[in-house]
Design a protein that fits this description.
Elements lengths: L9 H8 L1 H15 L6 H15 L2 H13 L4 H9 L8 H15 L2
Length: about 110
């Protein structure tokens, strides 16, 4: 009996079901990321904050790695998590995301 492997990410799932939608989303994100003066790693830190608030660990990890690969320091990633506290995220959300940040940073 053949088994199908699960897509690795939500984007993979969408791409498998409707490639043009995935391509359009990718184009949108590229346009947004190139629309202003913020460096890419700062934009990725901002995106990470959004994923803290929504509890999306997988997406947080993807964007945290992009931020770190782009030059963000682990302390900056942790601060991006902390600034969500009381604004968009609760203590439990921030505590969980600090662990994610340490994991993404290899600490």
């Amino acid at each position: 009996m053949a088994t199908e492997s699960k897509p690795a990410t939500a984007m993979d799932f969408v791409r498998d079901h409707h490639g043009p939608t995935a391509e359009a989303f990718t184009g949108l994100r590229k346009a947004v990321m190139s629309s202003g003066p913020l460096p890419a790693h700062i934009q990725e830190l901002i995106v990470c904050g959004g994923f803290v608030a929504t509890g999306q660990r997988g997406a947080f990890m993807t964007h945290a790695r992009r931020a770190l690969d782009g030059g963000a320091k682990p302390e900056e990633l942790r601060q991006a998590v902390l600034v969500t506290l009381g604004a968009t995220a609760t203590f439990p959300q921030v505590a969980a995301a600090l662990a994610w940040a340490d994991e993404a940073s290899g600490q």
